Each structure stands twice: as structure tokens, then as C-alpha cells.
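Task card 7
Instruction: Convert sequence to C-alpha cells.
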Amino acid sequence: MNPNIPRTILTKTYSDEQLEQMIMSATKKRKSKDLGNKLATEVAREFFLAETKRDPRYVAKILNVKDKRDVNWKVWKKYMQDYNKREYAYPMKPIATE
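Output:
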């Protein structure tokens, strides 16, 4: 954990469920929507840096991604592409990203 990087402090201090609640609450309020989206992006980056193998549906829930218009769609799509490369290095049908 690097104390100079806020996302590592958040992911080490709070559980995924707590972070999800924070993100959901922040994105629902007009005044904190931008902050909530930024927090979701930072949490996603932590997932990428750690190269975790979390299920993409779980990551979509954490990022609050429901369709292509969502602010974190590109972040989630990148996660999906990386996930498919890691998980499906064998001949299998990958999870669709579009």
C-alpha cells in the first residue's frame, strides 16, 4: 500500500461492498456525482493494477455501469478485454464486451 496514492488507501481501508455503497451514494447526488464517478474510476484502476480476477459483472456493479452511456463504460470495457485475455487464454468463447 502506498499512502501517497488515495486509491490504495481506500481499497485497503474499506471492503468492496463499502466502496460500492460510497460510489452508489455519491453518483446519485448531483453535488457529488463527479466525485463518485472519479472514485469508481480509481477503484477500477486498483483492480487493474492488482490484476485481480474479479468477475466482470461484479466490477460493472462496483463501477455502476449499466450501458454504454455510463461514464465508466470505457474503464469497464478495458477491464473486460484484459479479463478475457487472462481468463480465456484457452480456446473458449470470451465474455462479450459490446
